[in-house]
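Field log, afternoon session.

UNIT: design team B
ACTIVITY: writing a sequence onto a fixed backbone
BACKBONE:
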């Protein structure tokens, strides 16, 4: 079973149709990684595949897809805009573990002022409410993560896999298309002050996500600590390194 394959297939097709999509380099050793876990009859391979693109307005569009059988499936999909656009991040964390499904879909804001909310959040409140009806709030999540989410954060823990395949998939498609509508409309920023604020907000976000990556434990167990740190800083959340380079 690869629960999130249709999600990634849809995303890739949609990105190809709607953007001037170009490849984005994936460091060697991270395109494909496999590990065998368990013993005897319970042996299972866990494969992590990485995908990455870029476009004129989007610095990095990347996905990590983990496939490890019925009780381990993850699609973590994030879009990082170029630093001269005030666009939010697109963030999807679709996670299936032995304990169940955990779904986070959002357009994560750079700023929290009224003008930013009016531009990037308020137009999407009806879309959010439509989906949240069927995907109730998933409960507590780390307090310190709250500044990075928007009021249209979809956060839910469906009991049924069927809900993931239907309701969550619909929400995922809507959010991605709404995001790409914003991308189409986005105009480059040239004001020095604003450019500086964007870069600072992007770095805060990337630093936070790299430092608190909830997948660190899973990846370390599967592929070792060294591979994991390099994957996090060299691919999943690579902005800091790209700015130095
Ligand atoms: N999460 C990632 C990346 C992953 C990934 C890069 C490539 O950011 C997977 C893989 N997320 C992943 C896994 C788990 C979660 C959980 C494997 C389960 C961890 C576990 O239980 O062992 C949203 N993801 C979560 C949780 C949240 C998110 C809130 C629950 C974590 C917890 O309760 O501690 N998405 C996550 C998040 C941000 C985001 C914190 C912050 C900006 O965008």
């Amino acid at each position: 079973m690869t629960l999130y394959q249709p999600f990634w297939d849809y995303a890739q097709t949609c990105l190809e149709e709607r953007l001037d999509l170009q490849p984005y380099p994936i460091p060697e050793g991270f395109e494909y990684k496999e590990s065998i876990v368990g013993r005897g009859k319970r042996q299972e391979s866990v494969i992590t595949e990485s995908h990455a693109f870029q476009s004129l307005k989007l610095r990095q569009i990347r996905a990590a897809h983990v496939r490890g059988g019925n009780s381990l499936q993850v699609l973590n999909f994030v879009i990082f805009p170029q630093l001269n656009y005030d666009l939010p991040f697109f963030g999807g964390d679709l996670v299936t573990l032995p304990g169940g499904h955990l779904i986070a879909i959002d357009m994560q804001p750079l700023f929290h002022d009224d003008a930013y909310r009016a531009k990037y959040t308020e137009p999407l409140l009806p879309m959010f409410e439509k989906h949240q009806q069927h995907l109730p709030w998933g409960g507590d999540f780390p307090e310190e993560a709250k500044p990075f989410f928007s009021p249209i954060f979809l956060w839910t823990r469906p009991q049924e896999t069927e809900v993931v395949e239907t309701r969550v998939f619909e929400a995922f498609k809507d959010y991605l298309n709404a995001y790409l509508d914003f991308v189409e409309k986005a105009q480059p920023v040239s004001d020095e002050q604003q450019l500086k604020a964007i870069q600072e907000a992007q770095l805060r976000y990337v630093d936070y996500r790299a430092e608190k990556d909830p997948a660190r434990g899973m990846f370390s167990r599967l592929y070792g600590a060294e591979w994991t740190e390099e994957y996090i800083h060299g691919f999943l959340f690579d902005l800091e390194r790209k700015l130095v380079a």
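LOG NOTE: The beta strands are 22-23, 32-37, 44-54, 58-67, 73-81, 89-97, 100-108, 154-156.
NEXT ACTIVITY: expression trials, pending approval
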